[in-house]
Amino acid sequence: MTAGATGPATPTDPELAKVERIFDRWAPDYEKNEWYKAQGREVLEHLSLTGERLIVDVGCGTGWLLRQALAAHPEARGIGIDLSSKMIERARENAEAEGLNRVRFVTGNWEAAGADDGTSHAFGGKADVVFCVSAFHYFRGPRAALAKMFRSLRPGGELFLLDREMEGSALTRIWGGIHRFLLRDHVRFYTSSRLLRWMEEAGFCDRRVVTTIRKRFRGGKLYTSLVLLSARKPGASDGASGAVGGGERGA
Q1: Are 65 and 131 in contact (CB under 8 A)?
Q2: Is residue 35 a contact partner of residue 220, using CB atoms and an 8 Å limit?
Q3: Rg (CA), the chain
Q4: Torsion angle, alpha carbons of 196, 136, 151, 82, to 10
Q5: Which residues form the domain of 71?
Q6: Residues 6+ apart with CB under 8 A from 2
Q7: Does any domain span residue 52?
Q8: H or E stretch at 176
Q9: How many Cα neighbours within 13 Å face the side chain of 93?
């Protein structure tokens, strides 16, 4: 799942175009990947919504997580945004095949677009929940991306961010070094304490480590080290809540 990087999604940015091509190529078989679905299930386990709520999925891929969330919450609506046009094409096809008409999928670059372009205004309001699952490490400006997620939420709205966990994972650190020094791209992995600190800077409250996942041979991966974080925009909850556990760490 990729959400794009700073600058317009055009061939003039070779690195961005390369990322788009990779995910375009993966799109036809993306939902066969059980590792990504397992990550989505971690978020769904902690999601609880009532009423007509709006979910925005940043870096939605083929929309599997968003479609599952809407199926479980029949009054909710959804918007998914992804850099890859092929991912979005597949997301629209899958939603249509499932008869799901409460969702819109938008091809776009989260960092380049305005906070309301194609997302919050597509359904006439700000989001009650924002997902960012396995996409955050692609952002060139992670703090700015978090600030935009904050702005896209209504007061009381909640962010769920799931990504690789650097703490306690030598393999993730090695993989991060490969991206930085060998591949020389902008992919970066972070510790949960740094992510929580950036959430605080963006204005989020109730910042929490919901769960950490460290397993061998999970979904075809040799080793998985992930963290799911949750944070809330100050204000009335308006019925949107996540059953989160754990305490704030390192914020």
Answers
A1: yes
A2: yes
A3: 17
A4: -160
A5: 14-242
A6: 19, 20, 23, 59, 61, 82, 83, 84, 135, 138
A7: yes
A8: helix 170-177
A9: 11
Q: Tell me: the pLDDT tens digits for 8-22?
A: 344 357 777 777 888
Q: Sheet of 127-133: strands edge to edge?
A: 103-107, 77-82, 54-58, 127-133, 153-164, 221-232, 205-218
User: What per-residue confidence (pLDDT) applies to 23?
Assistant: 84
pLDDT tens, 120-158? 445 557 999 999 999 998 898 999 999 999 999 999 999
Question: What six digits make up the tokens of 112?
Answer: 């380049």
In-domain check, residue 219:
yes
Do you know the residue count of the chain?
A: 251
CATH of the domain at 194: 3.40.50.150
Tell whether the model's pLDDT for residue 28 goes beyond 60. Answer: yes
Whether residue 64 lies inside any domain: the answer is yes
- Which of 49, 35, 36, 46 has the alpha carbon at shortest distance from 78? 49
Contact between residue 199 and residue 127 where contact means Cβ atoms under 8 Å apart: no
Residue 191 backbone dihedrals phi, psi, to 5 degrees:
-80, 155
Tally of domains in the chain: 1
With pLDDT > 70 as the criterion, what percentage of the chain qualifies? Answer: 71
249 domain residue, yes or no: no
Q: Residue 225: what pLDDT?
A: 80
pLDDT value of position 165: 76
